[in-house]
Amino acid sequence: MNTFQKFYTENKERLFGYLLRKTGNYHLAADIMQESFTRYLERYKDREQSPALLFTIGRNLLYDHARKNHHDATYEDELHGVDIDLENICHVREESRRVLAAMQQLDTEERDILALAVSSDLSYREIADITGNSETNIKVKIHRSRCKLKKILR
After folding, report:
1. Suppose 23 and one of 73, 116, 126, 129 were both cysteines; which one would form an S-S bond, judging by CB atoms 3.0 to 4.6 Å apart?
2. 143-154 pLDDT, tens per residue?
3. Residue 2 carries which DSSP code?
4. Which of 52-66 are b and which e, b meaning 16 or more Cβ less than 10 Å from the residue's Cβ?
5. What is the CATH number of the domain that holds 81?
6. 138 lies in which domain range?
7. pLDDT tens profile 18-66
8. Which residues contact 83 (CB under 8 A, 6 or more apart)?
9. What's the number of domains the chain is made of?
10. Contact in structure between 128 and 137 (CB atoms under 8 Å)
11. Cβ neighbour number for residue 95 with a 10 Å cutoff
């Protein structure tokens, strides 16, 4: 396995999770994830591999998509599951729908920062660099976003 394949394997689920939490749309998240890796490989293959840069590319592609379509990507009921235990799958899907729908009620910045914190495995410093905020500000915003999400889910 070459180094890019390893980088892809280590980061694809985290990036996809971030994009899914941001958009609530399975297919859009998958498309943007693939485009993010493609652009990363085309433009930065000779650099040291950086998950923060990959997430920045994905985030920017998502914003480009929203601008082109003149709206924020919204939640669609298109989650994947494996047909093993239908009752459990239904429960997991319902909980996922609830959380994704609740996240859509957060403002764009709150949703973005919280999705980065939950999905990316990036440090607060790296999230601060991606979003253009201070590390302290990121910590505060993540805490407030989590509290707001808890209120919405009650």
Report:
1. 73
2. 999 999 999 998
3. -
4. bbbbbbbbebbeebb
5. 1.20.140
6. 3-153
7. 998 888 888 999 999 999 999 999 998 888 889 999 999 999 999 899 8
8. 89
9. 1
10. yes
11. 11
